[in-house]
Amino acid sequence: MAGIVVVGEVGGDGHLARISAEVATLARSLGSAAGVAVRGLVVAADPAIAAAELARYLPNVESVAAPELADHVPAQRIATEAVRVAADADYLVLGASPDGRDGAGIVSVLLGWGVLANATGVTWEDGGPVVEMSVFGGRLDTWSGFAAGKGIVTVRPNVVDATEQGSVGRVTTAAGDGRELVPTVRIVERVAESTGAAPIEEARIIVSGGRGVGGPDGFRIVEELAEALGGAVGATRAAVDAGWIPYAQQIGQTGKIVKPALYVALGISGAIQHKVGMQTAGTIVAVNRDPDAPIADFADLVVIGDLFEIVPAVVGALRARSA
Q1: 4-174 belongs to which CATH class?
Q2: Distance of alpha carbon 253 from its chain centroid, rounded?
Q3: How far out from the chain centre does Cα 132 lie?
Q4: Which of 57, 261, 291, 319 could form a disulfide bond with 282, CB atoms 3.0-4.6 angstroms apart?
Q5: Phi/psi of residue 167, nearest 5 degrees
Q6: What angle, 0 to 180 degrees and rounded to 10, lies between the N-to-C axes of helices 219-229 and 307-322?
Q7: CATH topology for 200-322?
């Protein structure tokens, strides 16, 4: 068996995306179970930093410099390099990020390989990967494999804890494939969100609001508690659809998948679509007036009462403690 290749993703700051560290950790465990080699691939305008970081998780990493990616969408060029290295691999593993999903789709068409997308877990059984996926809004879990013995897996963020290997791996520089297998897409404009807050996917503490906060003014309480705890602000789809908070803060089946140490749910019923986005949090605390709300079935602590009375009292206590 030729082995497994992890296609690394580079963030806007030139560092390895956290999801790629998670994917590398998962792939390393699969390689150990299967007894096959696992290696990484990093393609970027300047891949040096990200490739060195990926080598902390994998024994061998190939680094390909592609200067044109400074002003082009990366998925097309990354897919070309993935096709090249796939000649010596049986499985490609990527993060289920926008670029990862685009790259997986392109490689699938070019190679004719199947894709198992948005994996929530992957194990090695009977000579191949078995991919767990959450479907129908999180109501069902499925387990699937590749009939052809080759395939592509995209892994959801925050379903694996990134763990470095014992020693730093080796980084080799490759010239790459000069062919243009698919048309490239030039970036004509970049729009950066004006916020200093860390992405909610990386936050250790998240305070989220749902329909129960009542409106955009209600999110001021959510923001105050998040600030007092040193955390980030999240929301349910209902709150986002109502225009109370931007989509970037949405958590759930159609939003972000998060895995904080502490998740505080304010006025959130706990519908399955939201649950799948935050159920792996270390500790879940809910404040809700309805003792029969679904979130009471899986939260670690449920406070029954009016959040507009409870939260200000908690914020006051936290501020007094830190004074």
Answers
A1: alpha beta
A2: 12
A3: 16
A4: 261
A5: -135, 160
A6: 30
A7: Rossmann fold (3.40.50)
Determine the 3-state secondary structure of 207 from DSSP: strand
- AA letter at 276: V
Per-residue pLDDT of the chain (323 residues; tens, 9 = 90+): 579 999 999 988 899 999 999 999 999 999 999 999 999 999 999 999 999 999 999 999 999 999 988 898 899 999 999 999 999 999 999 999 989 999 999 999 999 999 999 999 999 998 899 999 987 766 788 999 999 889 999 999 888 999 999 899 999 999 887 778 888 889 898 876 655 456 788 899 999 999 999 999 999 999 999 999 999 999 999 999 999 999 989 999 888 889 899 999 999 999 988 998 898 899 999 999 999 999 999 999 999 999 999 999 999 999 998 87
CATH 3.40.50.620 positions along the chain are 4-174
Report the b/e string of 168-198 with b at 16+ CB within 10 A. ebebeeeebbeeebbeeeeeeeeeeeeeeee
Burial class (CB in 10 A: 0-12, 13-18, 19+), 301: exposed
Contact (Cβ atoms closer than 8 angstroms) between residue 38 and residue 30:
yes
Q: Determine the Cα–Cα distance for residues 218 and 247; give it in Å rounded to an integer.
A: 17
Beta bridge pairs of residue 125: 128
Where do the CATH 3.40.50.1220 domains begin and end in the chain? Answer: 200-322
